[in-house]
Design brief:
The chain is elongated. Helices cover 74% and strands 0% of the residues. The protein folds into two domains: 2-78; 82-190. Helix 3 packs parallel to helix 5 (67-78). The chain contains nine helices and no strands. By secondary structure, the chain is mostly helical.
Length: 199
């Protein structure tokens, strides 16, 4: 948001805010002109907020009349969702990479270069991170790349990622269960005296 506001030259209005003066009639014409410029900058900044938000976030600031008020309300409403951000980041990153690859493909096609899905699929497979390498090998060995579409590849990669995330969740649950049960055993063993017989 700051970059967009700065590009339009209105970030200062967001930071400093705009206050409606009490007796505007007492101002001379130059002061009124300056005040009108500040008011326009503030309304431009507020409009940028309105245009850049989804419906839910827009509802949070719909009643705000200044850009500073909207910014402060947005900051308060966003606090506390770090866990959600951490959870969504990998998924959004993958979606971004998929969209980016599709956009690159569309640009190449727009330039009238004959791009076959095979070349694009090959580029996608080569651009994947280490966690997907075994999937890349399986796809190359088991599937006919000539007949495969980009959407089919995308579906395969998404399915694999969901399985990996599910497996990670299951493994984490097992670890918590193991730690809980073995932690109780250790406490029980510590609580029991270690008697040795005469034998």
């Amino acid at each position: 948001m700051k970059a967009i506001h700065s590009a339009h030259g209105v970030w200062e209005s967001v930071e400093n805010g705009y206050t409606v003066p009490e007796n505007e009639e007492a101002f001379n014409q130059n002061e009124r002109n300056d005040l009108e410029k500040l008011r326009k900058k503030d309304q431009c900044a507020l409009t940028i907020f309105h245009q850049g938000l989804d419906d839910d976030m827009f509802e949070n600031i719909a009643n705000e009349t200044t850009s500073k008020g909207a910014w402060e309300k947005l900051q308060r409403s966003v606090m506390g969702i770090d866990k959600v951000k951490k959870r969504l980041t990998p998924t959004l990153r993958d979606e971004f990479e998929t969209l980016l690859m599709k956009e690159v493909t569309n640009q190449i096609k727009r330039l009238e270069e004959a791009v076959m899905d095979v070349r694009v699929i090959d580029k996608i497979l080569h651009s994947l991170t280490k966690k997907f390498w075994h999937v890349v090998v399986a796809i190359k060995e088991l599937k006919d790349l000539e007949a495969m579409t980009i959407d089919e590849l995308n579906d395969s990669l998404r399915e694999h990622e969901e399985r990996m995330n599910h497996d990670d969740d299951v493994e984490q649950g097992r670890n918590q269960w193991y730690e809980r049960d073995h932690g109780q055993e250790e406490q029980t063993q510590k609580a029991q005296p270690n008697y040795k017989g005469r034998g």
